[in-house]
Amino acid sequence: NAGVTQTPKFRVLKTGQSMTLLCAQDMNHEYMYWYRQDPGMGLRLIHYSVGEGTTAKGEVPDGYNVSRLKKQNFLLGLESAAPSQTSVYFCASSRGGIAENSPLHFGNGTRLTVT
Amino acid sequence: GNSVTQMEGPVTLSEEAFLTINCTYTATGYPSLFWYVQYPGEGLQLLLKATKADDKGSNKGFEATYRKETTSFHLEKGSVQVSDSAVYFCALIPMDTGRRALTFGSGTRLQVQP
Predict the structure, then answer these.
(1) Residue predicted with more confidence, B110 or B31
(2) Which residues of A64-89 are buried (b: 16+ CB within 10 A; e: fewer)?
(3) Alpha carbons within 13 A on the beta-carbon side of B99
(4) Which residues contact A14 (CB under 8 A, 6 or more apart)?
(5) Is the pLDDT of residue B75 over 80?
(6) What residue in A sits closest to B8 (Cα-Cα)?
(7) For a disulfide at B105, which of A40, A113, B87, B90, Cβ 3.0-4.6 Å?
(8) Residue of A nearest to B50 (CA)
(9) Which band of pLDDT confidence, cut at 50, 70 and 90, is reported for residue A1?
(10) A74 lies within 8 A of chain B by CB
(11) Does B106 contact A90 at a Cβ distance shorter than 8 Å?
């Protein structure tokens, strides 16, 4: 039971570099989410997807792009990394929408440092 | 807007002590309320939830009661164990805005000493 798998686990980038974080889920969930976790601020929603081929902005979308070409994958891209994007990134998925109270299943996180 | 406020940590307790982690919220309408737990090196997991006023969520010895009059959802456990050491997040979904994701509090770290 893999659940939600995030790659990579750790990454260090220089300012201006780009990278893509990959999230894969094997539970056939419709909904997928990207959050960032910063000290003292809890988790904040970056982008989310309600199904294959769809994406939507969350609370803090600036500087990030996402794609959901396949139902099981949700990619988070940083086109030009900035030190303010140093954070721990969590992917999550859920069977139904949050309004249905479907619990979120989280990956183990990606720790990104931008120097 | 919608927000969740949790007590600052870390909370340090001895094994078998009583635990309370405070959570209050601000939301339009009547939100559903959740507690998630994050063990070291892992993602968050749902611990318990309550979807309407006076509901009590419970799991693994933890309990929380949805108090509309005080807009609170405090987490309690009668006797903590070392294995309960983790970060606990209170969260809500406002039910009248159609928003599709959770709003989380900042988290409270619990450290239980043997």
Answers:
(1) B110
(2) bebebeebbebbbebeebeeebbbbb
(3) 21
(4) A81, A114, A115
(5) yes
(6) A40
(7) B90
(8) A101
(9) low
(10) no
(11) no
Other Cβ atoms within 10 Å of B18 Cβ, number: 10
What is the reported pLDDT for A115? 96
User: A42: left (phi > 0), else alpha (psi -120 to 50), else beta?
Assistant: left
- Which of B100, B106, B108 should one mutate to test binding to chain A, selecting the residue with the greatest count of A CBs within 10 A? B100
Q: Among B36, B43, B101, whose Cβ lies nearest the Cβ of A45?
A: B101
Chain A residues touching B50 at Cβ < 8 A: none
Residue type at B98? G
The torsion angles phi and psi of A98, rounded to 5 degrees, stand at: -60, -35
Residue B74's pLDDT band, with cuts at 50, 70 and 90, is: very high
Set of chain A residues whose Cβ sits within 8 Å of the Cβ of B43? 4, 90, 92, 105-109
The answer to whether B49 contacts A40, with C-beta atoms less than 8 Å apart, is: no
| pLDDT tens, position by position, B55-65 | 999 999 999 99
Calpha distance B62→B97 (Å, rounded):
29
B30 exposed, middle or buried (CB, 10 Å; 0-12, 13-18, 19+)? Answer: middle
